[in-house]
Amino acid sequence: MRTAIVVGAGIAGLATAGSLARTGWKVTLLERDDRVRPGRGAFVLWPNGVHALRALGLADGLDGIATPVPPSGIRRPNGQWLIQPGRTRMATGERPLIVHREDLHDAFIAGLGDQVDLRSGTTIRTARPRADRPAVSDGKTIFEADLVVAADGAHSAIRPRLVPESVFVTAGYAAWRAFIPGYRVPKLPADIPASGETLGGGHRFVHTLLGERGAAAGGTSRAGIAWVATAPGALRPEPPQMQLSLLRRWFAGWPAPTGDLLAATEPDDLVQDDVGELRPIPPSLAFTNPTGGYVLVGDAGHAMTHYLDQGACLALEDAATLHQTVRDAIPGRTLSQAIEDYSRLRRPRVVKVAARSRRIGSVLLGSSAGGLGLRARNVAMGRFLPRLLDRAAAEAVDWTPPSG
Known about the structure:
Elements lengths: L2 E5 L3 H11 L4 E5 L11 E4 L1 H9 L6 H4 E3 L4 E3 L5 E3 L13 E4 H10 L5 E4 L6 E2 L7 E3 L4 E3 L2 E4 L8 H4 L4 E15 L13 E6 L2 E8 L2 H6 L5 E9 L7 H11 L7 H7 L6 E9 L6 E3 L4 E4 L2 H4 L8 H16 L6 H32 L6 H27 L7
Parallel strand pairs: 1-2, 1-12, 2-8, 5-14, 12-19
Antiparallel strand pairs: 3-7, 4-7, 5-6, 9-10, 10-11, 13-16, 13-17, 14-15, 15-16, 18-19
Helix pairs in contact: 1-10, 2-10, 10-11, 11-12
């Protein structure tokens, strides 16, 4: 039987492990935490991510757990509209969806099947790329297989053994995200958009409603509002309560619902992320040896800034593409060629999306001139930013699963 080791039980790892198992692979899934957790909050599934889920056979029931993201506008901290709601971000095309992480996690766990040996509490520390057979180790046990899938995130332990020149580089910003469940969502004025974005002085605040307004107000556990805040600087070492106090101070006076949502957020809701990217993206996402080799999926292979909301979607694309290329491969040259095909199909796309996300970030969080300079910049941004965002979003979602 063909064997695979998947390192990391996040979105990329769970989707990949399940897809391999469903096509006849015996899979060992290694997770460093003591149990597999879904993570907190919600994330956006753009159309390309939905297409990937369908290709993986994981889209059943999506209509029951996901909510279309309402048309979004962009404002300044003084409330002035840079872009009116509905003028950008695929406003007239196939809408992105927002889904709670727990719901999608449940679908991934159900899709693992009985061919996946899940081992938690296993921290992989090294790989043996020059061995005759792919292998990784936690320092105590060596795990060998025909194929090793590195899905262990931006700070992967496997990637440095394969391509040491590719390292995670911070963008000079930190981001915080939280999900406020429906029973804690504050009552917001009816004229407050259900989804919106505010920019100013290198800071950014984005909020999106999951579920109907009535559901969010009435209290189903998976309804609520997700928000993301970005601020200049490094990760904050303070405890969550102090980080939340800083956020409330930095964003004080911003237009509703920013202050209301920060006030309703509790320290345990808060998740802090370093904003950055992998530089350079590895020249290949596949590393072959006589029986098969290693592949990089998700952030392990192409971590990028979050300004296009494409991290989860690209990880699902990776899983769907690998599913197709190795579906009928057998260990040896056939498998080696299959994972090379995976890299050939994936690398140009992720390089393009990463570059576009970097550019969007520089525009959204770039210079913050004052006085007349700020007003002139606002006018200019109001003219060109909708086209820039639409073009970037259209390119990001322009993907279809490879055919057999």
